[in-house]
């Protein structure tokens, strides 16, 4: 890591990168390797690798207890978990979702020929706006999917009131929200179901995996059938289903990760505090705050760029950081409504999503997690401070044809 003193020292303009190895957003958090290997060794000795083995059952039980719910149904990934929960709830026709989310939220509906109706977000919280939900309802609407973006809970009470009053099903994409709370209660028990992701980039990973949390006994039973081809015993298929099972190796990783989760979250909190301190007072840079009085996993460090105040655009700052090997990300750019097939289906959707478009054009997510040290965070902050202090000069040189690194 090295500090920059002039524009010519920026890697963007031919200087050496600040970091020898890239800093990633979402590099996997890994618990003690010896404990993972011990679990895997026991699994191999048992020769029980999948099909509701003891590790998966233990993981489901411990996760349900942690979340404070009656049921946790572990699956091979969160996208399949979304698809199965959607099908088990009987959603059809149209379902209200935010466009400002990972595209899997929308694809899980469209894959099943259910129309995702994109709703705008609150520009301060980045979560679905209940006031706009009401405006998007039609006679074909059967449900609402809220997304706890960055681990910050949606307005669950307002959405629940709308769903109850209009006879709609309500579920949540909680991919970001393990370990977070809403009104002092762990996210996981709101709506009829909540879906978690244990992808490698999440605060807790199972290599690849997901789960649905619910307090609905019938719904849980239905999802358990659906994730295993509808089998209710040997040679007894009683329901249509698919293969959504989590395997034993994934559960082994998850169990070790659950034990290490407090450590993961504390490391994220330390990094988040370092970013907050290091970016305080930087013109045009606003760090999204965590909700006061609520637990957070601090897994997403989100800044919004005001181009006029910062002197350079969001994309120019991202290019600068990538050249320095800080692989910041433009989540969730450009919004689901601007991705295919939705862009072709709804070419004018952006007219109803002004806050989504504004936020998608300003947000950067910065590296954190156990693979990133506070010293590295401070170096990233120094880079951003340098870039903004010379923002107009950086932008002018880029606009005149200076070198630009690729983000892709």
Helix fraction by DSSP (H/I, runs of at least 4): 25-40%
**C-alpha end-to-end distance:** 23 Å
**What structural class do the secondary elements suggest?**
alpha/beta
Tally the helices.
14
Strand order of the largest sheet: 2-10-9-6-5-3-4
CATH superfamily of the largest domain: Type I PLP-dependent aspartate aminotransferase-like (Major domain)
What brief labels describe this structure?
globular; Aspartate Aminotransferase, domain 1; 14 strands; seven-stranded mixed sheet; 408 residues; alpha/beta; three-stranded antiparallel sheet; Aspartate Aminotransferase, domain 2; 14% strand
Description:
The chain has a 7-stranded mixed beta sheet with strand order 2-10-9-6-5-3-4, with helices on both faces. Strands 11-12-14 form a 3-stranded antiparallel beta sheet. It has a two-stranded parallel sheet with strand order 1-13. It folds into 2 domains: 33-257, 3-Layer(aba) Sandwich (Aspartate Aminotransferase, domain 2); 261-399, Aspartate Aminotransferase, domain 1 (Alpha-Beta Complex), CATH 3.90.1150.10. The protein has 14 helices and 14 strands. The chain is an alpha/beta fold. The radius of gyration is 22 Å and the shape is globular. Helix content is 38%, strand content 14%. It has helices at 33-46, 54-67, 78-88, 103-110, 130-136, 156-166, 217-226, 248-279, 307-310, 314-323, 342-345, 354-360, 374-389, 391-399; strands at 23-24, 71-75, 94-98, 115-119, 141-147, 169-173, 181-182, 185-186, 193-197, 210-214, 285-287, 301-305, 326-327, 363-366. The mean pLDDT is 96. A hairpin with a 2-residue loop joins strand 7 (181-182) and strand 8 (185-186).
